[in-house]
TrEMBL record, chains A, B:
The keyword Transcription applies. SUPFAM superfamilies: lambda repressor-like DNA-binding domains (SSF47413), Periplasmic binding protein-like I (SSF53822). PROSITE patterns: HTH_LACI_2. Pfam families: LacI, Peripla_BP_1. One of its GO terms (molecular function) is DNA-binding transcription factor activity. It comes from Labedella endophytica. This is LacI family transcriptional regulator. Keywords: DNA-binding, Transcription, Transcription regulation. InterPro entries: HTH_LacI, Lambda_DNA-bd_dom_sf, Peripla_BP/Lac1_sug-bd_dom, Peripla_BP_I. Residues 2-55 form the HTH lacI-type domain.
Amino acid sequence: MATIYDVARLAGVSPATVSRVFNGTTVTPQNERVVKEAAAELDFVPNRTARTLRLRSSDIIALVIPDIENPYFTALARGVEDEARAAGYSVVLCNTDDDMSRESGYLDVAVSEHMAGVIIAAASDRSDLSPLLDRNKAVVAVDRVPRGAAIDAVTVDNVAGGRAATTLLVERGYRRIACIAGPADVETSTRRIAGWSAALEAAGLPEDPTLLEHADYRVDGGYAALERLLAHDERPDAVFVANNLMSVGALRALRDAGIHPPAVGIASFGALPFSTSAPTGVSTVSLPARELGSAAARILLERIAGDRQEPRTVVLEAVPVV
Amino acid sequence: MATIYDVARLAGVSPATVSRVFNGTTVTPQNERVVKEAAAELDFVPNRTARTLRLRSSDIIALVIPDIENPYFTALARGVEDEARAAGYSVVLCNTDDDMSRESGYLDVAVSEHMAGVIIAAASDRSDLSPLLDRNKAVVAVDRVPRGAAIDAVTVDNVAGGRAATTLLVERGYRRIACIAGPADVETSTRRIAGWSAALEAAGLPEDPTLLEHADYRVDGGYAALERLLAHDERPDAVFVANNLMSVGALRALRDAGIHPPAVGIASFGALPFSTSAPTGVSTVSLPARELGSAAARILLERIAGDRQEPRTVVLEAVPVV
DNA sequence: CTGAAAGCGCTTACAG
DNA sequence: CTGAAAGCGCTTACAG
């Protein structure tokens, strides 16, 4: 591979001048031209590794997400990407599969590759961001915020959204409303449960703790959780499901049990991905996934540019779909 | 950030010895211990940028895909990831959004960052892989193969799959079967069309070229294409749709037109993502997305390890779901 | 097994 | 505006 030295020799200038041409600093138009010609001739691609080593910073942003197969996170990724690319950064996606050790491995990669910054939807409440924070790396939490981390964050209003979704069921006349929540160690789940409770209380309905099932935010988890609820002594007449994928699983479990909404009501936190029908009996609150990503990217870009103000949290609204 | 020199000083050895400890070459157990203690004490993370510059190769694999919001490609990504991680590589995802200039930018990044190899589902038949091939970078094409590139490839049998899907419609009694294909410059689309033709011919059905609609492999494209077919003078009684997302769009268009399968039959190349019902009238051929990814990764890893045999193409089967 | 030293390909403060 | 030179943090052939 051609280097800056090869280009310099062919163009009859010094390597410093070649470097300056590729970094937009002051060179004569004449030199700019000969350098560009020489570079084209040699098929020169600057070695970013060397540049990064020298500058101690690359123009790559890492987006760390827990589940690449969840369309919510890929939509969020699109939001990050659109914003980052417009500012000249490349985005690489790192999928942790909800595994804190994989997550920690990717954070080390981000440090070790001198990436410009990290946007992270943490695998757990207990995710440890200190490898990043200790080194003053720009970080923005999105969707989920690890406990106790004083960092910028962009989230949705999980309590209000959970409450709104549950209220849709109340308004449609359901009275015994269960909840399929996410993992106990994920902040978003805790808050969505709080929203469910608040809605029940506001409606004067009793909250039966045996109607709360925890699952894993995945399709199969939602399926199994709904089966457990169906086997309950006093079966619920409706279920608030705390994310999109578990709602898919819950609906499949209902179908396989021969039950069709609205016989049992379902309210989903997050729109059903790629749905082709509007099943009666299924209510949703819709999440601004792409906007979460673009808002997070904008904040990260400001931090990279040197912004030093206090960390802030941006909360976006979940919108009930009627 | 602590460097190898800081660790060496604290441990009372040379930087070379520290390097050897982290690269698994011969050191005394005693030295190994003091170096590891010193590294832990200093919170040392090796600088991969420097390592890559020196070795001219990193342990990162790039996976370049055209649409991160298509579950088919994210499933494929999971396959790549599982295989690559088991071999000690990290995978970063690059989303081209079907744009050849974005794709070309990412290929330059892969070269310029000295990534170990690239797995690519090309944006177009005309995608130019020469930046990679000219530099002997390990490359495997997956799902789609750019024209004329003599490289390893893992694909599905698009002709047989298209034929099988169309045949499912024939067997269910449909006689005027349209096709919603992908972009004209994408190889997979051309082949799936050929499968559609072959099935019609085998069934002795006439092929009406006005029943062939091209779209963009996206939800909205499938929606619009189905609307065009419905407006056709002699409306088709069934449609073979050449990918999963366009099938979602087509089904939504049918729903919005108040038509419910099996009034119009639909056969989808690729399972409907996250479907919650098994709509009668919708047939599918199912694609081994994850296996495509893992097979591609296995071949890439062999190439990285130095395999020099002739490029080969692995073709996996699309399986009709009855 | 271990260390001194060179070199991977850039960028930039400094001097001119 | 331009060039010579140092240095970013590693790895490894070489000599001991």
